[in-house]
Each structure stands twice: as C-alpha cells, then as structure tokens.
Fold:
Amino acid sequence: MTEPAAESASKKTMLKGMNHYELKSWFREQGEAAFRGDQVFNWMYNHRVLEFDQMVNLPKSLRHTLEETAQMQTLTEHHSIISPESATKKFLFKTNEGNIIESVIIPEEKRVTLCVSTQVGCPLDCKFCATGLMGYKKNLTAGEIFDQYLLAQKGYDREISNIVYMGMGEPLLNYKNTIKSLEIFGSELTTGISLRKITVSTSGIPAKIRELADTGMKVKLAFSLHSCFEGMRSKIMPINDKYSLHENLDALDYYAEKTNTRITYEYVMLKGINDRKEDLHALIKLSKKIPSKVNLIPFNSLAHMSPEGLSAELEPTSDKDIQIFAEKLRDNYITVMLRNTQGKDIAAACGQLAVKF
Ligand code: SAH
Ligand code: SF4
Structure:
C-alpha cells in the first residue's frame, strides 16, 4: 500500500545539519559508499545547491533515490527588507514547522557581516532584549543555522565575510547544534567562511565556554557583560543568579588563554544602570584582567513590545554620553568599538524581531 504523500514527505531524512561524519555514516547505512557523504557534504555546504539533481557527480539513480528519501531545505524566505540608507538587509525565515526567525546582513566598507539566530526566542529573560520578551519556543538545528547563511547570501549582492551568532537565542544553550554549525563552516571542505571570521556571543554559561575552548575551534567569543556589578547584572540579566559574573570571568580567562584570542565585552549602554562613574571605573578595572576589547552598544528601544516592569523603565544613554564613556575607556588604553546602529530605519538591529508567542 502506498502512503499518503504528506506522511511520506515528513519521513524523509533531513541531511542539512549533518556533519561530515554523520553524512558518511548515513550513506553507509543506506548501502552506499561512504565517499558519497563527502560529495554530498561538498554540494550542500560548499556549492550550496538546493536540489539533489544539481549534484552532477552522483549517479542519476542515486540522485533520484535521494529525492525520494531525503531532504535538505530547512528554511524558506518569509519576508525581507533592505534599508535604503545603509543597505542593511533583514530577513525573516520560516522553519519547516512554521516558526519565524530573523537574520540580518550588516555591510561595511571592508566586510559584510551576517547575524544569525540560534533559537526561536530565548529562555533567558534579559530585561533589555526583545528576544527575551518573546519567550522561548525551540532550539534551531545546525541545518537551520547554516541555511540562514545560504539563503541570506543568495539574497545579497556582496559576499558575506563574517558571521556573528548574535540574533535570536542563546547559542551556548543550544550547544550541540551551535558546535555542529561551526564544524560545518570550519570544515576544510567548505570555502565560504573561516572560523576566525565567526563570533559567538553568549550571556555566559561557564561550563559551555570551557567546552567551546576545548574543541580547539578558536572562534571569537563575545560576552554580554552589561554590568560589572553582580547585583545590577542579576537585575537586568536574571541568568546571573545562576551563573555569576565571577564564574564567567574564570571561564573567559580560560577561553582567552586556550584559544589565544581576545574576548569582546558587549555592553548595551543603559542610562543610570551601567553608565555611571562607578560603572566606568569597574569596567576599566575588569577590562584589564583578561585580553579583551569593549563593544559599546546603543540600546534599541523595546517600546514596540509594550514591555512591563524594569524593561519598561530602561532608557538609552545619549549618543554624547556614549562618546564620553568611550573616550574615558580609551584614555585607559582599552580598545573600544562603538557598534553602529545602521538599519535602525528598518528595525533590523540584531534580535529585535517584534513577535510575541
Ligand atoms: N544570547 C546571546 C546572543 C544574542 S543577543 C547574548 O546574549 O549574548 C546579542 C547581543 O544583542 C547581546 O550582546 C545583547 O545584549 C544585545 N542586545 C539585546 N537586546 C538589545 C537591545 N534592546 N539593544 C541593543 N542590544 C541588545
Ligand atoms: Fe537571550 Fe541574549 Fe536576549 Fe539575553 S540578550 S534574552 S541571552 S538573546
């Protein structure tokens, strides 16, 4: 008896997201030679084809079998919008189950950065973050993380040179899939993006920071610091009650040493919360402990989310005061970057999708 089409379609094996090893094993299990896994890896992640029929060094019969038994599309483009001012482009992608996630391309003169999501929503309730206000739905698969890159690149005329894991979600709470996606980007068989051009941003899960260091992948790590005081950090980032700043700094020290990279401290400038004199002094002191730089980020308003409680009270530090804060850090020999907020006209800043579940 033949099965209804919808049911057989859902039984297809999803190949996108499998790493090299998994693909080889899967082909072996299908009674095929393991090197078919190499070939398909190359077509999926390097040539980034969308149809099995485009894998021209596979026998026609195998391409046909793959069409029947496997699939590789994890996302479709739901909507996209490009800023006329800055060429920043925001994509909304739909997962196969119908969840919406966002990715943003931020072009600069010398590089083009893609910001990817790792979860649908986020379980960590940071008070300044639109994604946090949405709640949490699910972890993205490695295939869904990779396909944000594939589809964003297909929809943009300059080549993506850098990737930041700074969209929706906490990458280190989706550790397995984050690592797998990094393995795919970093494989010697893929030529698109090198791991040195990838930054993973975390709110701080110490055990996972150490584990990431031990993989030897040497991606850049950004830590969402936002306050140097445990009490204030806990107020704006409740996860700090579970994983303190102190514990995180130990893990970051380990990461910097093991990977020989500098940590980036992300610091969303919040008026009266983390831009006071004592905050400046504490940040100067903290920055000297571990090889690092500071990324000052203007706060994007959450007004469109109708927030409550502390979230409703948060206000941005003025541009002038951010400049002064940056100068004082520089006077103390700290490397400071000011994140530009290009794309504000299309609400494209990373992680600012206004959806409530
Ligand atoms: N969960 C990870 C990565 C996603 S958030 C993390 O927290 O690091 C990526 C960055 O966007 C973080 O530094 C976060 O603090 C920042 N961010 C969140 N909400 C913001 C807002 N309203 N305005 C500016 N930056 C924000
Ligand atoms: Fe999650 Fe990062 Fe937003 Fe915090 S800042 S809620 S960890 S996405």
